[in-house]
Amino acid sequence: MSDQDRAKRPATLRRQPIAANADRQISRVLGCILCSFAVFAIWPGIDLRVSGAFHDPGTGFAIDGNRLTEALRLAIWNLAILLCVAAAVGTLLGMAGRTFVLPTRAWAFILALYVLGPGLLVEMVTKPLWGRARPAQVAEFGGSHPFSPPNELVELCARNCSFVSGEVAGATVTAVALMLLRFHLKPRLSKGAAALLLAVAWCLPPVVALQRIAAGRHFLSDTIFAVLFTLLLALALSMVLRPLSRQTHWARRTAAAARANRG
Length: 263
What we know:
Layout: H1 3-8, H2 11-42, H3 45-52, E1 55-56, E2 60-61, H4 67-95, H5 104-130, H6 166-185, H7 191-214, H8 220-241, H9 247-262
């Protein structure tokens, strides 16, 4: 199909494959969420077993306070902040009619995902609603609070609770942002740079999840649901903002071709 043919297609037809694919992905993520809740409801001891693998009754959790892992955690956190600021700048410049690295809709998507995911969904909804104590705070690991599975709403803490992990949610948003960067910049990237971006994006959520579990800050379920909730939000936002859309790209190429023909 030529560039002109793509540009002439009705907008509704161009959007249908994207919307249909997002619908399928949302259904799959919802299915994973329901299955995960069922698994942890039937076998709530999974969380204790996984956290227990990193806990010693005499010394506590394996990497709690470890300088190397804390430095890695801080580096990933700073990367998230950097991308969030870049998304804000890119969105503002786009509103002013200027393009900054990515299309405006892609920057707006990344900014909205950071604000609505780790910011709103995690800190203002799930943490206070579930009220779940962190691993280091439960009786099984030397704390004073009882353990609660993720399918129970309790009032064991008032703020900064365990369910879900804000840092894993942030790492998931950062991974999505890196994938968007790779998608839009791939024609200008070397194969090595594109492969590196892909590898970093895939590794970020599990690396952060492992660090939070081994440090006694989160249960396994806190990290799994952080990823799933964030992906669900990302898919829902993608249906509105369409960050992968190349409609503007095709329109610009068509306009350039038309000018060349006129010349």
